[in-house]
Automatic annotation (TrEMBL):
InterPro entries xref list: ChloroindolylP_hydrolase
Keyword Protein biosynthesis: no
Keywords associated with the record: Membrane, Transmembrane, Transmembrane helix
Location of region: Disordered: 1-32
Source organism phylogeny: Bacteria, Pseudomonadati, Pseudomonadota, Alphaproteobacteria, Rhodobacterales
UniProt KW Membrane keyword: yes
Protein name: 5-bromo-4-chloroindolyl phosphate hydrolysis family protein
Length: 296
């Protein structure tokens, strides 16, 4: 079904972009990964090997097909590495990726080009040159994976890991909402869901900043988001068939209520953090006063 493109010059006059932290339909955290277009080209570049393979002798045929498979695997790993990097960049507190996908993609690229450059005459110079160039150019184009944790100093690793697992599970619910609302075929509804997701993402960042907040927010990350996802799936299927405006109004009201509750809970978490900070400051001041240390 054709969809109108929303924007300043569209009939609805909307020029409100989606919230920065909301995931899009591809599951990336609020924006396309850097070098995403070049990553897609990696899936196209090996295609000539499939064509030329069938004009060669059996050994050449096998080498080209193996090279094609390796290069496609390299493209997949690179794209997944860019997604992981985008999620890492979107968070103030993040662990480095467990699997360095971009580095693995560069190694597979070099290996694939080396296999494609193998002539079968026993010479290793050409494959070696192709392999080294492939690795170097891949690293220059896409960079390396994040190699260190970000913003995790002074934070209990067990608590931060609990938060990471809870947020990852909650983000799966948000991604499922994005996928489901696409079936409704209405860009304004897609933007409304993105706005709600931006509010939820704000809560995510608040919890990541202080893992102690997870206890007060767990119900929101699991029960409420799961309900929002299920409601979105059912609404999208119904609205795609019937265009029921009453159902649409009820769904938008549900999102309004959920968004208000998530915002209120986030403000409460921030308020609790401020209270904890004030207590720590007063304790330190009292201790300094007892030790006779006073500002001039």
């Amino acid at each position: 079904m054709a969809q109108r493109f929303g924007g300043r010059f569209s009939p609805d006059g909307s020029n409100q972009p989606g919230p920065q932290g909301a995931p899009n339909a591809r599951g990336w955290a609020g924006r396309r990964p850097r070098s995403g277009g070049r990553a897609n080209l990696l899936f196209i570049a090996p295609l000539p090997l499939v064509v030329t393979a069938f004009f060669k002798e059996p050994v050449g045929l096998a080498l080209d097909l193996v090279a094609f498979g390796i290069l496609m695997a390299a493209a997949f790993m690179t794209r997944e590495g860019l997604k992981a990097e985008a999620a890492y960049d979107a968070r103030r507190i993040a662990r480095r990726p467990a699997l360095p996908r971009k580095i693995l993609g560069s190694v597979l690229t070099g290996l694939g080009l080396a296999v494609a450059g193998w002539s079968g005459d026993g010479s290793v110079l050409n494959p070696l040159i192709f392999g080294v160039l492939g690795v170097v150019l891949h690293v220059l184009s896409f960079g390396l994976d994040p190699m260190s944790d970000k913003g995790a100093e002074g934070i209990d690793q067990f608590q931060s890991d609990r938060v990471a697992r809870a947020v990852d599970e909650a983000e799966k619910h948000l991604a499922a909402m994005s996928d489901a609302i696409l079936r409704a075929g209405d860009r304004s509804l897609e933007r409304r869901v993105e706005k709600f997701q931006g509010t939820v993402k704000t809560m995510f960042r608040t919890i990541e900043d202080d893992p102690r907040d997870l206890t007060g927010a767990r119900k929101y990350l699991s029960v409420y988001l799961l309900g929002a996802k299920d409601a979105t799936v059912k609404f999208a299927d119904l609205y795609a068939r019937t265009r029921d405006e009453g159902a649409r109004s009820d769904y938008e009201s549900l999102l309004d209520d959920l968004e208000a509750n998530f915002s209120a809970q986030t403000e409460k978490l921030l308020g609790d953090n401020r209270t904890d900070l004030d207590i720590e400051i007063e304790v330190l001041r009292d201790r300094l006063a007892r030790e006779g240390v006073r500002p001039e």
